[in-house]
Amino acid sequence: MMSLRCHRSKPLWAVLCVLVLCWLYIFPVYRLPSDKEIVDEVLRQGQVWSKNQTGIDLYRKLLTECCDPKRMFAVTKENSPIGKVLWYDGEFYHYHIVSNETYPFFIQETPLQQPLKKCAVVGNAGVLKSSSCGRDIDEADFVMRCNLPPLSKKYTDDVGTRTHLVTANPSIIEKSFQNLLWSRRAFVESMKAYGSSFIYMPAFSMKPGTDPSLRAYHALADSSSNQTVLFANPDFLKNVGRFWKGRGVHGKRLSTGLFLVSLALGLCEEVTVYGFWPFSVGLDEQPVSHHYYDNILPSSGFHAMPEEFMQLWHLHKSGTLRMRIGRCMSEAEGAKE
């Protein structure tokens, strides 16, 4: 009787084994380095960096083939005519059909002048505090920032003042400006910190974010703002997500920062990344806040920030982009080393 039970259970075990193997294929198990191991690795590398034009050209080619950032990073009248179905990249089974009502909100074609030369992508990590990277950031030809970060005077030595493109997540519109349902003045005033920049909004990523994004568009347009609202193309965001998942990033969704780095790698001749450090200690092994302006942690499990960092660190070591972590040295300080 016992042998009969075992015999009958074999098909069940075989099915379970197949399911486990499929799960491991989709979500491979591996150990990320500890915070201390990351710090030791970065300190060993030091400030040494050498540009690798072959690597830069390769990643531009790969991102062009998968995602076409030059033409597709924003929703335009050219790539999204009336009647086109925009499938939300962050939600299944939700879509927006471009209509006579929404079509006028889109720009005619991609507005970025090609090619962009030296680009700075500025994250918001606490490692930027006391970094003195503001001058380096402002010397870039094109500066991209994430999620409407504060640029008040007490931060500018570390994060700079110039902005050419800044993302505005609808969740920020909800939390900081009450979805623009009652007043728009505070929002319009706060946006002046970013000058005549492009405001890049994922209006068609998740359905709850569409209306706040459109209200932000109207608020800036009605105030005669010199800023241009660009709506992120959900096809571009979806394809970029697939690109990095195939390289080992398994979060539910990429961080805004990695989306911007992907855009920069596809459009810029040289990319330098600042403020990307998702770890609890800095290079001095002292605690570091999550952001340079606060220590509010993100929801756990949504982004895979350490995995994203490891991908960017690999690109740094290969010379495809440059990561600035810790203090930005002046030329005189660099010469002393």
TrEMBL record:
Cell compartment(s), UniProt: Golgi apparatus membrane
Record keyword Ribosomal protein present: no
EC number(s) reported in the record: 2.4.3.8
Pathway(s) where this gene product acts: Sphingolipid metabolism; Lipid metabolism; sphingolipid metabolism; Protein modification; protein glycosylation
CDD domains: GT29_ST8SIA1 (cd23989)
Pfam families in the cross-refs: Glyco_transf_29 (PF00777)
Membrane topology annotation: Single-pass type II membrane protein
InterPro entries named in the record: Glyco_trans_29, Glycosyltr_29_Sialyltrsf, GT29-like_sf, Sialyl_trans
GO CC terms: Golgi membrane
Disulphide bridges, residue numbers: C119-C268
PANTHER family: ALPHA-2,8-SIALYLTRANSFERASE (PTHR11987), ALPHA-N-ACETYLNEURAMINIDE ALPHA-2,8-SIALYLTRANSFERASE (PTHR11987:SF3)
UniProt family annotation: Belongs to the glycosyltransferase 29 family.
Name of protein: Alpha-N-acetylneuraminide alpha-2,8-sialyltransferase
Organism, scientific name: Chanos chanos (Milkfish)
Name of the gene encoding the protein in the UniProt record: st8sia1
